[in-house]
Hints:
By secondary structure, this protein is an alpha/beta fold. It is 33% helix and 16% strand.
Amino acid sequence: MNAKDYDAIVVGSGPNGLAAAITLRQQGLSVLLIEGKDEVGGGTRTSELTLPGFHHDICSAVHPMAVLSPFFKTLPLSRHGLEWLQPEINAAHPLDNGSAGALFHSVKDTAASLGPDTVAYEKFMAPVVKSLPSLLPELLSPFPLPANFLDLALFGLKALPPSTWIAKLFKTPEAKGLWAGMAAHSIQPLDNWITSAIGLMLMAAGHVNGWPIPKGGSKGISLALASYFKSIGGEIQTGFFVTSVKELPTAKALLFDVTPRQLVKLAGDRLSRSYIQRLDNYRYGMGVFKIDWALSSPAPFTSSLCRKAGTVHLGGTFEEIAATEKMASDGKIPDKPFVLFSQPTLIDPTRAPEGKHVAWAYCHVPHGSGADMTQAIESQVERFAPGFRDTILAKHTFSAPEMEAYNPNYIGGDINGGIQDIFQHFSRPVLSISPYRTSQKGIYICSSSTPPGGGVHGMCGYHAAKRALKDGVF
């Protein structure tokens, strides 16, 4: 380890760690970013998991929040190799009768595709889409207090209720199913309060800037951020897995892109007992089981909408998805889980050899479950894309424990840095007017376990760095 002293050291190079490091370096501070693996990225990495020439995203893959991020928008990432590609249809949700709901780029096109729910969808989404760009900086901050309080209040009226309530606004199975798939990204039972916020944000994001993917894979985001950071004088050290703050050079501030459990392991001897007790009460959510496939051809979905969508939500009706998500949350293994399916080579052929394809899918499982969900997931894909198994050339799987082994931040397979329910949405990682600050001066947490939570947007790291700057530790 370099013996040089720094103004700040950031441990962990996920998008939030990179954002924190960049924000501090932009203020002229000397900043070292440390990553345990041989390349930066955290969950935003791409690798040949199956066969040579087939490039798979390890975790995050589709990025509606990245292109909306107020922080990322300030950076010249296109000059550092980042190129966004948009699918023809953002997302689709097939049903057993061959029909499907679809999230098109415009509100009107989506509404028009939903038949009897055309008016209901447009009435529900149009105001949110109109106000989202101006609300984003506040919605992605610790405590939203915008000048336009009315827009925030109207957003909250739709975002705070359980998604089961919002589903009652729609009549058709297609609209209800489309909503279920969006809300299920919250990784919790759909009758929980605030699950509508996730669905609402994802739908609105699709209408504002789409659900794009980076050309070449999600690593393009991490590599562009790292390239920019180095271009302004930042330092990066990879291949050094930190196990204690005692291993680090001297710095005025330490920022950790880790969850509360890792923070206690790394810096517990510097933190107060009462603060550690509060961190110990932090709750983690369901895990995921993930499969990556190398394919001979695209998934043969029955629905033409699904064959054009970058993301496909599989699970049938709203009622089916609500039931299986509840099962997984309650510690049970669903036979027909809700499945998130992504097919990036529809719009980015560079990720596979000519004429071939990659796809990935994951389902939610009980926290820490080692259950092998391969057959259950593939059966759900086959249910809506008969003949899918015949296209499989090779596969790679991650169980929930294997996800945690790959990235210690994924406690029990929880890829969201902790459950983001109504009780913990406003208290990540503890209830505090300064959630990024720990009990020890100069030590901060900047991961998705802080506001505004999960997603590739960098705002947790940005706000943590801003907090350190305001605290005057430099």
